[in-house]
Design a protein that fits this description.
The chain is built from twelve helices and twelve strands. It is an alpha/beta fold and 327 residues long. The radius of gyration is 21 Å and the shape is globular.
Length: 327
């Protein structure tokens, strides 16, 4: 267990959207702690609330009648919930950094790469444009972009997907943030580039001791790089704990189903799959949202949602956890 005080503390975080079908809760009462130098993975199928959670922590859900964020988000003791957009703008890029899922849509196609990276020190570092450009070139070189001075003068379309992702990482880390949120940073990249991107993030963590919240579908990346893992399903936490503990002793049936899809040294002809589909938020009942897909579900599983319980290190939300622990 990490003995340092958490750098980020989230309590009771929920995100509700008003739709034609009524109010939908995309993120439901999430608690998490992120410690300095720690990499916490958030995993789950598409639509389980991972990206919505990350955007809420970054203050990117504007409070309107159609979108409501509730709960507490504390960064080094500073309560972020309720801050104005101006306050959030001062935090993003400085104390909070984010690597978005699609690097092409994260970069402005009509501005040069160097100008986009230099914007962060200009806004938060109080430096002039010349010094900001110099810092941008250094940052591009730091993420492994060759000839950074020349490449800084180019446009996003002149970069490959992997190079664009490096630029996004440079933008997210040039301000040395306390917390870096990486939303699928290796999506659509080949295996070699994926490994390079993850090494960049691990090196940055070692150099700055920042906390990293990694959102990913790649359980192999989680096993190789992360300290703890949080499994989400239907906007809620299904299981969380140290990566080694959860991967060795998965307790929630959903976690077991996810891990069963990882090919081993001698994979079968056909990998097992979790039956059914994730539930629609409008149809969630009072019980466990995974019950319709669970092979051990009992009648009471559909009546009440199980609490998140367990040891301080390893918690699971499952009524049948004791049965599964014995098996």
């Amino acid at each position: 267990m990490n003995e340092q005080a958490p750098i980020l503390i989230v309590r009771g975080l929920s995100v509700d959207f008003q739709t034609r079908q009524g109010r939908l809760r995309a993120v439901d009462n999430i608690d998490l702690d992120l410690h300095p130098g720690e990499m916490l993975a958030v995993v789950g199928e598409s639509g389980c609330g991972k990206s919505t959670l990350s955007r809420a922590i970054m203050g990117l859900h504007e409070q309107t009648p159609e979108a409501q964020v509730s709960g507490s988000i504390r960064l080094r003791g500073d309560e972020l919930a309720g801050k104005t957009e101006r306050d959030w703008c001062a935090l993003r890029g400085d104390r909070l950094g984010m690597v978005f899922q699609d690097p092409m849509s994260s970069l402005n196609p009509v501005y040069r790469i160097g100008a986009q990276v230099a914007e962060v020190p200009c806004l938060h570092g109080g430096v002039d444009r010349r010094d900001a450009w110099r810092q941008a070139v250094e940052s591009l070189g730091g993420v492994g972009i060759p000839s950074p001075a020349e490449r800084a003068d180019q446009y996003p379309y002149e970069f490959s997907g992997g190079m664009r992702q490096r630029v996004v990482i440079a933008m997210a880390t040039i301000g040395s943030p306390d917390v870096l949120i990486a939303d699928e940073p290796t999506t659509a990249l080949d295996v070699t580039i994926q490994a390079q991107i993850m090494k960049l993030m691990l090196d940055m963590r070692q150099q700055t001791n920042c906390g990293i919240l990694l959102i990913t579908h790649d359980l192999a990346v989680v096993a190789q790089t992360c300290d703890r893992v949080m499994v989400m399903y239907a906007g809620r936490i299904a299981e969380q704990g140290p990566v080694k503990e959860v991967f060795k002793h998965p307790t929630h049936p959903y976690t077991r189903g996810l891990l069963a899809t990882i090919p081993g040294d001698d994979p079968p002809d056909r990998l097992p799959a979790i039956p059914g589909q994730p539930p629609e938020l409008k149809s969630l009942g009072a019980g466990c949202p995974f019950a319709p897909r669970c092979d051990l579900a009992q009648p009471h599983c559909g009546e009440r949602h199980p609490p998140l319980e367990g040891t301080p290190d390893h918690q699971v939300a499952c009524w049948e956890r004791e049965v599964r622990d014995v098996q």
